[in-house]
Amino acid sequence: MKVAHPIPYQGSKRHLAAQILTFFPDDATRLLEPFAGSAAVALAGLHHKKVASVVLNDANSALMALWAAIIDHPDEIAAQYRALWIQQQGQERAFYDTIRAEFNRTHHPDHFLYLLARCVKASVRYNAQGEFNQSPDNRRKGAQPDTMRDQIAHASRLLINRTSLHNLDYRDVLDMAVQSDIVYLDPPYQGVSKSRDPRYQASITFEGFARTLHTLNERGISYIVSYDGRTDAKIYGARLPAELDLAHIELEAGRSSQATLLGRRAHTFESLYLSPALMSRLGKDMHVAPHTLPRQLQLFESP
Asked: Which of 51, 184, 193, 241 is the most exposed place for a label (fewest CB within 10 A)?
C-alpha cells in the first residue's frame, strides 16, 4: 500500500516526502515535526522505517484533535466521515455550510475532516474571530468513504504507539529535541507570515525563525527546513541567512499550476535547508551553486 494520507492539507509534502527522506541520517530513531499539518513526512518516515517514532505538533488545536481521533479511534472517525459524506448528497453546498457552522461551535474532529475534504484547495482559513471560514469546492464531494477509511486505518497502524501529539508553540517542541533526533520544519510560507497567518492565531516572523535555527545550531540539532521556493527564475521568499551555514538543496515540485492556468509552462522548485549537524551526520559536503535571479517575490504574489 502507498503511504497513508488521510488529511488533505494545502502545502502537504506528500509528493516530496520520499525525496526529503533521503536526507535522514541512518542513525535517527525519532522525528520531530513542529509544524505537522498533514504529517506527510512523518507518515512516510514510519512507512519506510526511516524512524521508529515521531513527535507531531501543530498550533491548530482542531487539527491535533483530528490526529488523535485518527490514531486512537480510526473506525469511529471513518464511520462518522461516511455518515457526513452520505448526508450531503443532493445538498452539498448547504450541508457544507451547516457542518462549518457546527464545527465552529463544537470543534468536532469528524466535522473538521469533512471540511478539509471539501474546502477549496484543502486550504485551512480562519477569520479574525478564530472561526473556520473557507468556502467549499463545489466541484468536489470529498474523498469516497471507502478510500478515507483505508487511509485512516493505514495511518493509525503507522502512528499508534509510536507518536507523541502536542498543541504547543513550535519552539517549545524544539526544546524537546536531542542530538540523536531528526527534525523536519515546514513553517508557513513567508508570503503569509508577515502578518497573522490565516491558518493560526500567531505569526511566525522571518527574524524570529532564523534566531530559533541559530539556537538549534548551537545545540547541535540535526534539522531540515522547507522554507522558500521558485518558479523557474522567480524566487518566492527570502533565502535563510547565510550565517546559519545551511546546505541549500532544491527539489523539483512539478509544473506550476498557476502558470498552466495562464497558458505558460513553468516548473516549481522547493528549497530544503540542511543543518550543519545533519551534514556532519550524513558525511556529505554538498554544494549548490547560488542562483542569480532578477528579483524576489513574496509567495503567492502575481508576477
From this structure: 241
